Here is the input.
Amino acid sequence: MVFPGSFLGTEEEFLPGENCFEQSSSVYSDSIGKEHFDFDEKVVSVKKLSPDVSMLSIGNVVHAVVVLVKDQACVLEILEMEDPQRPGKKVVSGSKSSVLPVFSVMNSYVKFMSDYFKIGDIVRARVEKISPTGIELETKSGPGLGVVMAYCVSCRHALKLVEMELKCSHCGSNERRKISADYSLK
Ligand SMILES: [Zn+2]
Here is the structure.
């Protein structure tokens, strides 16, 4: 699973294929999807995840992108779910809107949602509730839950996790999030 800005290899190793781009001699993904390395042709490409109508249930772990950050909640668009029946395999859910309330972020008190999530962040979260009004997520029940990919607020480059801090290698800024132990760019 890769995200926009995920590092895929150096220019010497691979040429950028479908849904990839090259910058400063490195190749990155420009999409959310599954990476594919063609070692014969020396090309890396990313196969975009296609929508599916799998039903979500409580306890499912999903990947979602933050589309709105309010004081009391984040609104996230669910991109895909992890399938408990097939460990390691992932099924994409349909495009579904969900909410992460401020009290479900972590076990300690969260005053400002915007200290922990920003628009565009990719979040690994667990489905807590499903009601006619929508899907509710939480990120407090495990260390693997939280932001798995974040982008610099100033320049939009992917942030790298260095010694428990998120740093932008492009403009040098440091940012704060509710970071998952599975953060994807280390
Ligand atoms: Zn930056």
In short: The first strand starts at residue 7 and ends at 10. The chain is about 0% helix and 45% strand.
